[in-house]
Amino acid sequence: MKIFITSLTFILLFFSSCTQEEACRENKQVLFRTGLYTLGTGNSLNVDSITVFGLNDNSIEVDSLYKNVKNINKIALPLNNSTEESIFVLNINGIHDTLNIQYSNKEYFISYSCGMVITHHVDTVISTNHMIKGYKIVNRDINTTDVQHLQILL
Amino acid sequence: MYNIYRYYFSLLLVCCVTTLTGQKVNTEINDSIRKFELNSLRVEVDMSPVITTFLNRGDVYQYEGAIQAEINKRFYPVFEIGYAGADKLTTSEINYQGNALFYRLGMDFNLIKNQTIENKFTNYFLIGARLGHTNFDYNLQNITFENEYWDTNFQKDFRGESLNLWFEITAGIRVEIYKRVYIGWTARIKNLINKPDPGEYKPFYIPGFGINGDGSVWAFNYMLGYKF
After folding, report:
1. Do the beta carbons of residue B195 and residue B216 sit within 8 Å?
2. A96 φ, ψ to 5°?
3. CB distance from A119 to chain B under 8 Å?
4. Taking the complete model, does pTM exceed 0.90, yes or no?
């Protein structure tokens, strides 16, 4: 009986210190990460200023993601998870370009603490060529991992 | 993970070897081939839900029992069966519902050498392993997908099926408090054998296993039993 009481006390103390705390610790942001590069050399390029905003289904401007941000060489764009196309306007050094991204969506379960997110697989990228001279898709799968997906050549 | 398994297996083997070598070697030829001898059957019920269901506010529940045989006073095969489930609103506000029967099959070894006639009561310090199984349907409601920038927010429900196998290392004691009546506890560490791919739906709670996180799960049973 003594061994039972002693061991039970030990076990109860041990388990009482192991209560699980539910909290979301994983990254939930799914962003289309884009780097800015110099055409020809392929070197990373810091632009003087950049403004970026999205256009919704009615081609109406959504809030600015970047507003006249100085000396920047990469941007991160949230894609619309209820459609399969997102359009962004990039104003680089005062010159406008439009970036059209077409993709497919997939549900991704993170955890019961964090819930689920929509991830994307990029099919096509189309842009106007006022400031943008070219682009290169380096990773088509967009999820919570912090990797670059597109290189814009200026 | 494999290091943990290796550690517990090594511990289990050391305990088994210690138990076996601790017994007297009988040189008589008749004893060299021991006959199968069923010494007893112990039927047990887990009393811990009385506390745990209260602590979990009824969101998660588990009821189980076991039948354990004693063979040749050395081997203790065990069959455990139970019913468990969860009906819970998770932190991410997904409403989870799922319940099912579960089964475990395993073997224990007794590390206490007290099975003598002069002992009034017998006690057991059991260490062993289990293989668990359950197959069940579960529902997820109000899975929310939102995007602050595009101001989108939509919800979805999901119904899935889950087949689970898991492995347990167990340790516990049984104390005879009255003639043939036993109380005791079993502590378990459990690991899933089959896991879903990253990003796939999975149940919040696996009956018999516990909360379906990323790593090992600890559990504790408080058993009340009777030996036949």
Report:
1. no
2. -85, 140
3. yes
4. no
Which stretch of A108-112, B22-26, B38-42 has the lowest confidence by average pLDDT?
Answer: B22-26
Please check whether residue B64 lies inside any domain of the structure: yes
Looking at the predicted structure, is the pLDDT value of residue B21 above 60?
no
Q: What is the domain range of residue B120?
A: 39-227
Say whether residue A6 is in contact with chain B using an 8 A CB cutoff.
no
Q: What is the CA radius of gyration of chain A?
A: 23
Confidence label for A12 from pLDDT (cuts 50, 70 and 90) = low
B92 closest CB neighbour out of A1, A80, A115: A115
CATH of the domain at B212: 2.40.160.20
For A19, what's the count of Cα atoms within 13 Å in the CB-facing half-sphere? 8
Among B91, B175, B201, the residue with its CB nearest the CB of A109 is B201
Question: Which residue of chain A is at minimal alpha-carbon distance from B176?
Answer: A1
Q: Does A80 touch chain B (CB under 8 A)?
A: yes
In whole angstroms, what separates CA A56 from the centre of its chain?
18
The band of B27, judged by pLDDT with boundaries at 50, 70 and 90, is very low
pLDDT at position A52? 93
Whether residue B193 is predicted with pLDDT greater than 80 in this model: the reply is yes
- Tell me which of 1.10.40, 1.10.10, 2.60.40, 2.80.20 is the CATH number of domain A27-153: 2.60.40
Mark yes or no for CB contact B175/A112 under 8 Å. no
Under 8 Å CB-to-CB from B47, ≥6 apart: which residues? B222, B223, B224
Give me the residue from A4, A56, A82 closest to B173, CB to CB.
A4
Q: What is the pLDDT of residue A74?
A: 93
Cβ-based contacts of B210 with chain A (< 8 Å): none
CA angle B220, B222, B224 (to 5 degrees): 150
B29 lies in some domain: no
B199 and A108 within 8 Å at the Cβ level: the answer is yes
pLDDT recorded at residue B110: 87
Q: Indicate if the pLDDT at residue B74 is higher than 80.
A: yes
- Per-domain boundaries in chain A: 27-153
Among candidate residues A13, A10, A18, the one with its CA nearest the CA of residue B173: A10
